[in-house]
Amino acid sequence: MRFHRVLAWGSGLLITVWVSAGSSEKMLRMPSVLAQTYQATLNQKMANLKKTEDRWIEINLSTQRLTAWEGSKPVYAILISTGKKKTPTIPGMFTIQSKRRIDRMKGDGYDIDDVPYAQYYSGGYAIHGAYWHKSFGTPVSHGCTNLAVNHAKWLFNWSKVGTPVVIHP
């Protein structure tokens, strides 16, 4: 079983999770109480990171902003583009798993060569430069977090494999 897609709707924070188990997919809905508990857990993890001097990345899906932190000090903040409704960026607590200076990204409805400064944090989900659009501040991606290339370069050089990534609504 693996999580396939996470979507959040409305102010009641109902989260729908698509779960793959073999060849079938099922939809689970988390009631508002579970969604609030999940958000509280992410908030606590961010509070704990702020008590350290560690580098970490915050991605705010509501404001379409990425902030690079060193403990409790924000050191870099930019507008980003995360996933659109049909291909959302998944919220959660992750770490950078791998980094590629240039990569090819292929999926349903896209095939892009020379994607710069890709930092993978969960399967095919990555933070990377996007030279093909300038719609930062608006969710337009297939689930990844798009940055202007110059910002992606800065973040790529600042972070390392193992850097925490917190993505929240």
UniProtKB/TrEMBL annotation:
<dbReference type="GO" id="GO:0018104">
    <property type="term" value="P:peptidoglycan-protein cross-linking"/>
</dbReference>
<dbReference type="Pfam" id="PF03734">
    <property type="entry name" value="YkuD"/>
</dbReference>
<keyword id="KW-0808">Transferase</keyword>
<dbReference type="GO" id="GO:0071555">
    <property type="term" value="P:cell wall organization"/>
</dbReference>
<dbReference type="GO" id="GO:0071972">
    <property type="term" value="F:peptidoglycan L,D-transpeptidase activity"/>
</dbReference>
<dbReference type="GO" id="GO:0016740">
    <property type="term" value="F:transferase activity"/>
</dbReference>
<feature type="domain" description="L,D-TPase catalytic">
    <location>
        <begin position="54"/>
        <end position="167"/>
    </location>
</feature>
<keyword id="KW-0573">Peptidoglycan synthesis</keyword>
<dbReference type="GO" id="GO:0008360">
    <property type="term" value="P:regulation of cell shape"/>
</dbReference>
<dbReference type="InterPro" id="IPR038063">
    <property type="entry name" value="Transpep_catalytic_dom"/>
</dbReference>
<dbReference type="InterPro" id="IPR005490">
    <property type="entry name" value="LD_TPept_cat_dom"/>
</dbReference>
<comment type="pathway">
    <text>Cell wall biogenesis; peptidoglycan biosynthesis.</text>
</comment>
<protein>
    <submittedName>
        <fullName>L,D-transpeptidase</fullName>
    </submittedName>
</protein>
<keyword id="KW-0961">Cell wall biogenesis/degradation</keyword>
<dbReference type="InterPro" id="IPR050979">
    <property type="entry name" value="LD-transpeptidase"/>
</dbReference>
<keyword id="KW-0133">Cell shape</keyword>
<dbReference type="GO" id="GO:0005576">
    <property type="term" value="C:extracellular region"/>
</dbReference>
